Batch of 4 targets.
Target 1
Amino acid sequence: MSELVTNAIRYGREPVTLAVRQVGARVRVEVTDANPTPPAVVDTATEQLATGRRGLTLVAGLCRRWGWEPSGEGKRVWCEI
């Protein structure tokens, strides 16, 4: 959850919202912001990484599913655990 919220605050635009809900046997975390630019996933196999830009790679590795979709004038990034 913190990775999605941090990305929305760092790269998105206000307002940033967080929603957590149960979907069947899973928990879905959704973070919306007003920036329509799609989230960028860094290829950790080819990119020299310091201490940042790993958030979505971590989300993809730890969650069952994740993705994004347009939402109003911005976007919604979500993951299911």
Target 2
Amino acid sequence: MASFKELTHTRKLKLGTYIGEFATPGIGQILKSAGCEYAFVDMEHSGFGFETVKAVLRNLHDAGIASLVRPPSKEYHHLARACDVGAQGIIPPMLGTPAEAKACLDAINYVPEGNRGCALNIAHDDYHPASVLDALAAANRKTSLTPLIETAEGIDHCDEIAAMDGVDCLWIGHFDLSASLGIPGEFENPAFTDAVDAVLAAGARHNKSVGRLVGSPEEGVELFTQGFDFICYLGDMWLLQRALTEGFSAIRSSVSNEALAGGRSS
């Protein structure tokens, strides 16, 4: 399987989805059968704890799905623990400055690239015995940082962040970004579109991937043509809700009003 970091090595289209509700053992195979390449596993806005995420990551990786985990915060203990339970990519929320990005890189990388506390032959290295130096180097090679740009401060510093070694992808948190800009939900507002353009320009200038959640296939196509190469199509609970709504509506629209009222049509 390609790890999340390996997926960032090209600008080709990468399709994934968000997991924030269904931690089922079958999730990896379900996503794989649908053609999914990576999953965005959320801890900030879900009820998932680290034990749950550890199980989800094992299911994803066993099915060949790359993983991007958003921890509850960008604090060291959240970042390092997310790595320890197996996250390939880390997407810290509300990342706004190069100094914060450097602190995140230090937290997720072992020496000499960072200062992450050493724990080897555990989930993150698939319990594979190796010499200390080989294990540290292997972990650093596969661990990836994706700053979540979702504040006005992040927009101001996005070029500096994109220029940093160890930053592999920039991700736009569109709802929070619009709120930070004082225009919540106004995604056609020039202030928002200019902010998006700044992130795309930073990614292109420094040859870094750029990703975003999308609400429809059409939006995914449009954003890919703009320069986004990681397209995250909806999420588990929203996809189920949408499919059920469409199915129920189709059934109800095909049944007579009398039958809907409790009678039977002849």
Target 3
Amino acid sequence: MTESQPRVDTALVDGNTRPVAQYLARHFAWTVQEGVGCIELMRPERKNPLTFESYAELRDLFHNLKYAADIHTIVLSGAGDNFCSGGDVHEIIGPLIRLKAPELLMFTRMTGDLVKAMRACPQPIIAAIDGVCAGAGAIIAMASDLRVGTVRSKTAFLFNRVGLAGCDMGACAMLPRIVGQGRASELLYTGRSLGGEEAERWGFLNRLVEPAHLIAEAMTLARDLAAGPTFANGITKTMLHQEWAMTIEQAIEAEAQAQTICMLTQDFTRAYEAFAAKQKPRFEGN
């Protein structure tokens, strides 16, 4: 690799190119453990609300993760006993009512860009949900690939409670695909809370765990995925997202091409050789 060639696991952060694993977050905690990137929202006294700045920084981090070959999965959680209470009432909601339409559209596009960046990054995202998961917090949980929660979690798409439509940050497109059209309609029209046990029955939560074990369970799942064929997992995530807009015929052809690419990887060869030797494969993501 020459001086002019960028590292494939780096991204442009604050105008400087450096490994994403070394990124120093300002508005949340960011750590990397064994290939797992951990994002923790850090305002527990307010139930971890989002601000203009944290929205933008999360968007930028997820965008940069497209270039982070050393990070294979993401765990997203909140400090304390809550996940995220949504947009900060005083730091976001108050200022928004004083803005005109062009500035409001800039804001709603920026928040939507966070969801786009979450869906576009190749790493599977695991949301660890405890306590309050409301408004924009429910959206970023929805935009994650997998959700681990507790019985005391309360997920609510609160937008109609503040005079807004439920169609926020992709909710009308994504939520029906997770829980079904009728159930999504109920949540978006009423803004009611979805308890942990009901959320698991509806398919919003993949599993329920004890609150004390939430982060450990999420990290175990993340490490299991990180130990798998991470390039292929990234292809799976891409196809899960892109095939929403495809016909069945288009999806089958797209998957044929995607699987061909995966068959060219060394991980595919390693899996065959391990199977032939009656061993467990060791994937390396290439």
Target 4
Amino acid sequence: MNIIQSLLQVFRSRKMAALLFVGFSSSLPFLLTSKTLQAWMTLEKVDLSAIGLFSLVGVPYSLKFLWSPLIDRFALPFLGRRRGWLIAIQVGLLLAIACMSLQQPKQALQLLAINALAIAFFSATQDIVADAYRTDVLEQMEMGAGAAIFVLGYRGAMLVTGALALILADRIPWSLVYLIMAGCMVVGILATLFAPEPKSVNPPASLIEAVVLPFGDFFQRRGVVQAFLVLGFIVLYKLGDALVNNMSTPFLLQIGFTQTDIGAIQGGMGLIATIVGAFAGGAFLSKIGLNLSLWLFGALQALSNLTYLVLANLGKNYQFLVLTINIENLCAGLGTAAFVAF
């Protein structure tokens, strides 16, 4: 009984409430520059090759390690070392997402790309600071609970931007949808204002300590060849899934499914399937080991994408759409479990 009360006390704390909503804020911009934006562009009759190229606006998420040491080294003169950066970035995101409501995808594609890239940059930077805040604010015994709460908020925002946004877009203009999504950033801003300040941690003393030493340590421990092999593996392991996911929303719209269909099935059921896959992957991983899991789940990840080929031949088939989304997301969840463990 005392153990249960202790666990409940952990989840009731102010820092856990803050992490829930910071996690929500951290996830909110992600789909607004990928699948949700692709749906808007498809309905505006933007060329498919241009929609495919828009996946490049996600590059900041892959390159955020380049400027994360700068965020770690310097602090803004308000709200502390982590919360100061968080609040500044969240306000920037609110304004950048609101600006999307002014865009015309068909008439001014370059302006849309610049706007989306700005959102992706702010979002990737928010991820850096949110992860650092979570690390600093949690005690060792709270790490597991804190990560779970953060992910819960993260997944909740994906329901809002991946399901609710598409359902709303069938009923109101896309410009208004993006204004509503911008308003949702207020959740993260309020959470940051009321979040507890982490214990003071000394920042790196110089840029060399912040930037050079971490990379040097990684290559020294691994060796140059193995270090590059590890980095190559990280880049390539989920590349196939990324390429398919990038065009799945335009594909589903073009074969006749509505935004509400895609929002409810892909954004709703697909998210649940991903979570189930991640939990199942974690359970299997503990039984069969990391190496076999990476091979097995990686193969399932690749094979699951063939369901889209079958759907392309069947056309607008709701039953097979449900099956396709569930299989693809379940296997993606399995692969993610092994990948994150690696």
